[in-house]
């Protein structure tokens, strides 16, 4: 996973005026170097701020610069995230007095620094922080105060912190949130709170405005932190906080899941079969962290179980070559610098989009065909790539292609082959495994059969063991991500 937090050993003598200069005309005459004391200077390099002080030179990546300002006495103060280890960054400050006081010059230079530090990412985000005190091993509050809040504060964000009080509280908070006051809802939790927040937005009369306007991000404080892994490329709380500070607004497809009379929004996955069972039947083993998924898989494999169902699928790309081509076409595009979706105006009624294919209660849509899957072992539809830190289950997944990636694996597969298939995930050979059926789809209906009871997982939450239907909504939700258009996962 890429991680841009380390202080690079870039060439400090590279001419900063030669490359990567994104400054506008107003700033063109601002010098790159600020003389700060007889033997010290601050220089805006290509990727980093170069600090020369008494013959020592070091660089601070622009990515790590959180804020800069002048103090009353004219001192230039720069706040940045300092890497104290591979997994932890902490805010630090450097401050220097200009050799010749010139507040206009200092302000202009700081503006240029912040432009390089933030690029297309919004500065001083207004953030509603939600902390789930029961997320993961119950340490969300501790993690927030130690690793996350200091980064947000150093970046001069406006923070409004609330602790969730009960199951479903995230839905209530999002449903009544004054969305004009916030740019981001940051969930210090597992994947459960983002799921609730998007569902809370989905219940509003201005659902589409809320879903486009307010980005939902996760700071990894739970046992399942897929949202963060995929968009920030890390499950370290402080690195994720830094990534969120620098995150680009990125549209994310969301799916409607209908079952009975309920319509739920799903951002992560829907599963029936072995993965659902592992996800839901091993909740009591949360203390194991993500290892519980591997453990659960091995235990269940011994049984070699089939989960028969009738399935209808609306296919977009029906074979691996077409899936790979779609992925590569998107990955080849330059990073997104702006969000070009239309934001419905405030006050306009804009509830969730209508369902193109109706609900599970409607007759099968025209052209759909229910196909018996009597030997089904795993039906797994994913919207993101990583499902857990070592599990890039859906390497071809894309945030805004309007598709779910669908994996089907037979339950009759020999145990040795099943284990080889599991191991193939970490070796990045899963996608090409001949035992894995992989497609991109826009909707499906699944009707489990010949089983009294079982597990169905939507975003890691258990839903009743009954038929359900899913339909994708292209770019309905919004996240912040490192590169704006593909996940922080190895693709295909
Ligand atoms: N104060 C609370 N008391 C009890 N449950 C809560 C509270 N706040 C939030 N929850 C619930 O905790 C559940 C799990 O949350 P979260 O995803 O943050 O943690 P997690 O450890 O990663 O769990 P999971 O692995 O199930 O996703 C959510 O369904 C949420 O509604």
Polypeptide structure, described:
With 492 residues, the chain is of the alpha+beta class. 24% of the residues lie in helices and 31% in strands. The chain folds into three domains: 25-118, Roll (PH-domain like), CATH 2.30.29; 126-253, 3-Layer(aba) Sandwich (Rossmann fold); 259-352 and 364-473, Tumour Suppressor Smad4, CATH 2.60.200.40. Strands 12, 13, 14, 15, 16, 17, 20, 21, 22, 23 and 24 form an eleven-stranded antiparallel β-sheet that branches. A four-stranded antiparallel β-sheet has the order 1-2-3-4, covered by helices on one side. The two termini are 15 Å apart. The relative contact order is 0.13. The structure holds adenosine-5'-triphosphate.
Task: Give a quick set of tags describing it.
31% strand; alpha+beta; 492 residues; Tumour Suppressor Smad4; eleven-stranded antiparallel β-sheet; binds adenosine-5'-triphosphate; 11 helices; elongated; Rossmann fold
